């Protein structure tokens, strides 16, 4: 009897221990919700403190307590409290057996020591004050140089106008004297000569007036350019002060220029877009914010299958953003598993495959749609595609569940997700990993390509459909067509010197058709290494008062871009994506004429990336 009682008490104790551990985890999750979701930092600190106190009483996990201590320091730093430093130091002193959490605390501690003062309420894109000052100085210097250049151009036009006026004056003075002489003469010959001279004088005066008007137009254009530069400067200053972005060359596996945030550990991987090597149309708006729950398991099979079902209630889970590592969202040092869940509304056609493309998941991704197993991917630095045709509801809401396991360093869904259907006849099994497709690295190229790329027979197919890099959350406000109008135009010149071909009213119906997303050599223009124009009409539905950007995945080599006949910017560099602010030129509601002048000097040419 005593043995039975002992076993019963042991079971009770184990059950109670499990309940306590579950309660501590729920408290930690609630603290994260207060910090990340509600922004209630003081309440978050109180809940994190409860997690630490529970561990001190022998309840809960030491790693969770260490993370709670770290999050308290982060909250204090956001509140501008100086004791954030002592809190970070306590992580190292109290939890020596948690080196990864301690390393993150040391990194944040070093960051606070480098600042002149703790910045009040820093966002996830806020830079240090010294960095912002450097950025402001650089922008002001560039603006000063642009202004001086424009003023020199104005002065040159004014001097040229004065010289022309003086020259015309020298030409008209003798003519005026001849007119006066003929007026004093009464002979018929003198009258005839006088009429000719008067006409010469009138022609000279008309020429003078035309040149004056031309000079005035040039000066007005330069004045408008100055105003645009001023507005652009104001937007740059606002962006720097709000976000602290800067350009930096990152030697990542893709070896491309991206925008790196200043105070996030893994920001140089953030918002990595999927690689989709064929023409497609999106059939769903994938949300950025998902439901999230930490998990200590190695495989999803060890967890309740209810997590993947559509009717599972995840309302008490924390929230997290895809497009960023979970370490940069409050889960430093978590190198185990976690669940992501979201509901995605799909509007897809019957008869065509539906695919889900991932920009990057670190490391192992197990994917379920509507409670059904879809597939897995086990490489942290490769985008991948899954065929979800058999699991997806094509005209309604779908529940997507991901189990992610990370063994070391960065973890989570750091890339973007896209749900789409191909628009061309393409063998998608060559690209979907759950159908046998996979990515390979090009030797020396630094860009991942699908194994079917070289089998296509197209010379530059490995660069085709390269997506833009957009290093921030955004709303898509236009469907950019794949097919554009195309006109080879060999002359090379600066972008804003042809107001005819770039204008919104230009009739391009006689031009050829071409697809963006592929080099022009792979579309019948092999060996053409000169310039060409691309034109398309794009319908925009954007919200007034917010900037509108045009993002390019890749143009080889020089790109000069117009929107509604207005020159909006240029870019040089065949292998780097770029973004242009078109807010001053775009019609926020309605059709917009977009023209791109491309010049290529050798090898591949054209708009080989997507827009």
UniProtKB/TrEMBL annotation:
Superkingdom as given in the UniProt entry: Bacteria
SUPFAM superfamilies: Galactose-binding domain-like (SSF49785), TPR-like (SSF48452)
Region (Disordered) location: 108-128, 171-194
Keywords for this protein: Signal
Matching InterPro entries: Galactose-bd-like_sf, GH2_Domain-Containing, TPR-like_helical_dom_sf, TPR_rpt
Composition skew (Basic and acidic residues), residue ranges: 113-127, 171-183
GO biological process, one term: carbohydrate metabolic process
Gene3D superfamilies assigned to the protein according to its UniProt record, in alphabetical order: Galactose-binding domain-like (2.60.120.260)
Signal peptide: 1-21
UniProt-recorded Gene Ontology molecular function terms: hydrolase activity, hydrolyzing O-glycosyl compounds
PANTHER family: BETA-GALACTOSIDASE (PTHR42732), BETA-MANNOSIDASE (PTHR42732:SF1)
Annotated protein name in UniProt: Tetratricopeptide repeat protein
